[in-house]
Amino acid sequence: MSLGEFELIESFFWRRPGQGPRRAVVGNGDDCAVIAPAPGMQLAVSTDTMVEGRHFLSTVDPARLGHKALAVNLSDLAACGAQPLAFTLALTLPRVDEAWLSALARGLLDLADEHECELIGGDTTAGPLSIGMTVMGEVPPGQALLRSGAQPGDDLWVSGHPGEARLALEAFRGTLHPGLSGEAFEATRLAMEAPDPRVALGLGLRGVATAAIDISDGLLGDLGHILRRSRVGATVVLDALPVSPWLAGRAVVEQQDCILAGGDDYELLFTAPVAQRPAVAALADSLGLLLSRIGRIEADPGLRVRVTGLDEGHAGPLVPNRWVSFDHFRG
Amino acid sequence: MSLGEFELIESFFWRRPGQGPRRAVVGNGDDCAVIAPAPGMQLAVSTDTMVEGRHFLSTVDPARLGHKALAVNLSDLAACGAQPLAFTLALTLPRVDEAWLSALARGLLDLADEHECELIGGDTTAGPLSIGMTVMGEVPPGQALLRSGAQPGDDLWVSGHPGEARLALEAFRGTLHPGLSGEAFEATRLAMEAPDPRVALGLGLRGVATAAIDISDGLLGDLGHILRRSRVGATVVLDALPVSPWLAGRAVVEQQDCILAGGDDYELLFTAPVAQRPAVAALADSLGLLLSRIGRIEADPGLRVRVTGLDEGHAGPLVPNRWVSFDHFRG
């Protein structure tokens, strides 16, 4: 890359003073950025890389790509109940395309501004296209939402409408019969390409949820992480699953596959004591976000999928768990 | 990558409890890691990506590659005067080669252990080989070494023997006449492939230096960053430059080119008031590290290179600055 190309990239990503959130004591441009977490706060840190051809196609709208690259990282902060603070960006570019980079930066920085998360450092390299990020957020000591806190008797909840991203992916792959309407395609494609990280939900779940995770690898697969870490089991009830309007008219098997093992969803799966149902309902109201109770945590290890029987004392017919993991889904 | 391959990678990088430094409140394995900076401390953050073919060759010893990937990031913390705390690792791998990965992890984690810097999170992806890292370190409020603090009258210092990495690179490129002896090649190659980050020096320079930077882009190029940020000028004196024993017998022009514009050196360039000379000498002694006074900061903007005249009131003949930047060096 030439000096002029580096300056171009800088101009898109490193804004002038007065623009965007200012969270750093020392901003980008020194050997390190310096941030000062609020007194007594702990720092939640997560890192993710998106590689062309694996996590996105070269044809994707660059503004959506920029949005998503940050969104998947903010989603990890949300799953911890952390308030976004700052992030670093490692950009590897095969070439410098001004229009593409400008759109990427806009999509990324618009989402960053929305969450008051400052871009504090970065590194741009020539090479095969990938976007790496490390995000940092603040959380009061002991209040981070972990995977390990689920207790027998807790309710199991999920936000939003999992499965839409997978539906769009299958539409791209041409495997859907019937295919999607234009409207359904655009809506589910938006869910896939520009997911909304559930940051406000994560903050609201501090002190309410006992465990949380984002379901980027598929609802049941990620539930498995909570179960292993918390040393508990669970029942998930098919009739209680939230069905996206774009999935509603489709075959039941397809609905279940997308919702339970779709992957690339940035919704939160969380557990909370029964006594917290009013608090969860109040959160759903205040956020205008669907929160669905889809099962319960049990002392008996393992995962049970039933058609009905959401409430204690009820147990509908068991269904074989064919949703082992996202990667093996549909062989 | 298969599940088994992921587990293999995990086994190399994510150690069992009891091994390696433990700096995190919540370690790897949740959505986020959680770290707790010591009360009142600020956090210095830096990120760097190394891409195969650009920053390293596929033939490099993987243990040295692992060492260097962390070393270049620790060098940024050193240049800020920050104590290493933790880092994240974003690994993109075209294939899973057990011996190679095991050596990479060993080189990386040995250096991490040496500096008590904990690997707290990461992401492994299939794709073209690259190694991305974000390091975090602690620094007391207001004590970070910045590029912006140099004052007219300050001395200009450099650590170690800059230029060795460039000498090794030119040996690899076959441009050296005469070539290097086997011993010189191995020694300079070590400087290039497994540099020592000057972490202890950075910590010792808190309260002593007024500005600091690492000279990974070449001594004069990086000095330019200090001059611009500090709004000052400088004189650099050729006769005062530290000449590596491996450069000593070579043409003077080659020596100067390697030392002043070699690049890929992880030495620190710093400025300090004249009154701090005893403190700098004491640091050199206690660290067993060469610290050379190579010039001075002046109010007059711009960079002047002179053959002699290190001390105030002396001014040897001016030399045209042919070392504009690392990238343009030897056009």
Please tell me how large the radius of gyration of chain A is: 21 Å
Euclidean distance between termini CA atoms of chain A: 42 Å
Q: What order do the SSEs of chain A take from the amino end to the carboxyl end, as H and E?
A: HEEEHEHEEEHHHEHEHEHEEE
**Unreliably modeled segments of chain A:** 326-331
Mean pLDDT of chain A: 90
What gross morphology of chain A would you assign? globular
Q: What kind of sheet is the major sheet of chain A?
A: 7 strands, mixed
CATH level-four homologous superfamily name of the largest domain in chain A = PurM-like C-terminal domain
The oligomeric state is homodimer
Summarize the amount of helix of chain A as a percent range.
25-40%
The spatial strand order of the largest sheet of chain A comes to 8-10-7-11-9-12-13
Helix/strand/pairing class of chain A, anyone? alpha+beta
CATH topology of the largest domain in chain A: Phosphoribosyl-aminoimidazole Synthetase, Chain A, domain 2
Total of helices of chain A: 9
Secondary structure tally: strands of chain A: 13
| Largest interface between protein chains, with number of residues from each side | A-B, 63 and 63 residues
Q: Your description of this structure?
A:
Two copies of one chain form a homodimer. With about 325 residues, chain A is an alpha+beta fold. Helix content of chain A is about 35%, strand content about 25%. The interface between A and B is large, with 63 and 63 residues. β3 of chain A pairs antiparallel with β2 (about 35) of chain B, so a sheet runs across the interface.
